Amino acid sequence: METRVLNGREIQTVLAEELAATISLFPRAPALAIVQVGERPESDAYIRQKVRFGQRVGFEVNHIRLGEQASDADVMKVMAELNGDDRVDGIILQLPLPAHMNTGVIIESIHPLKDVDGLTSASVKRLFSGDTSGFVPATAKGILTLLDRSGIEVAGTHAVIVGRSNLVGKPVALALLSLNATVTLCHSGTADLAKHTRSADILIVAAGKRGLIGREHVSRGQTVIDVGITADPLAEGKRKLLGDVDFDAVKEIVGAITPVPGGVGPLTVASLFENVAAAFERLHEK
Ligand code: NAP
After folding, report:
1. What is the number of other CB atoms lying within 10 angstroms of the CB of residue 204?
2. Rounded to whole angstroms, how far apart are CA atoms 153 and 55?
């Protein structure tokens, strides 16, 4: 059977239309505030994608940039203002922050009802207890949507996740667990990674190590979701992105696979704005 390439851009287009229809019924455009400290080319690129998608669909997106030397107190003052502003529905803190800052404390200063990245302890607790109706972090939510819209069943499958970060691996694991997958989480200390990855029905790779997954790591018929994004060091001048999976090596073996770019990335962006629309509804429900 021919391998399916799961096209995240096509699904994003459908989600964008659905979101535009949903928010057109709202009394005003839902508003997202993106708080960034300092400048980082990767963060700048991700923010541009979010601003472009959000504005195209009809959201208001405000990018607030503080200087590299800003203190925790400076950022928390901005958060307090955004928390109290009725015209702001969702707040995200662009990570990573400069090394001198206390990321955990600043995240906790975001109002739980505006925490559209799902990073505060209130959101984490909800996901931990098996409830995916709150703010599921955008990448995890994007992966669930990708599987769902591609007609790939999760319940009863064995899902293997490579990567255990708080931002990606762990929320993906919890979200799949709540959908009744049997979940294995792998990391840099996992012995015989290939033995685990080959045993997966659904293999999700979020390690940030280009080409980590090759022929020896996959088995026939699997669904492979490549979350990794690394800039190609050989792409002179141009920004070329590579995933964690050696796409060409595995694509004849597996049943379905996401490309990089154009797989999970577009759904991460769309999922963030689904969370903003949900935040608007929750904040304004009577
Ligand atoms: P991270 O915080 O660096 O975590 C990487 C994880 O991968 C860690 O748990 C690490 O294990 C594990 N790992 C590293 N090398 C490994 C190896 N050789 N074998 C097995 N496990 C290994 O990164 P992240 O924030 O989770 O992001 C992961 C990747 O996804 C990055 O490339 C990032 O750019 C990308 N990303 C993409 C999207 C998207 O929308 N497509 C969104 C977010 C992130 P230890 O815990 O043992 O160190």
Report:
1. 31
2. 33
What is the separation of C-alpha 124 from the centre of its chain, rounded to a whole number of angstroms?
A: 14
Tokens 């998608």 belong to residue:
53
| pLDDT tens sequence across 160-196 | 999 999 999 999 999 999 999 999 999 999 999 999 9
| Biggest alpha carbon–alpha carbon distance for the chain | 57
Judge if the beta carbon of residue 198 lies within 6 A of ligand 1.
no
CA of 165 to the centre of ligand 1 (A): 6
Q: Which residue has the tokens 């239309």?
A: 17
Q: Would residue 222 show up in a list of annotated catalytic residues for this protein?
A: no
Q: Is 12 designated active site?
A: no
Query: Is the C-beta atom of 193 inside 6 A of ligand 1?
Result: yes
**DSSP conformational letter for 262:** S
Q: Which ligand 1 atom minimizes the distance to the CA of 142?
A: 40
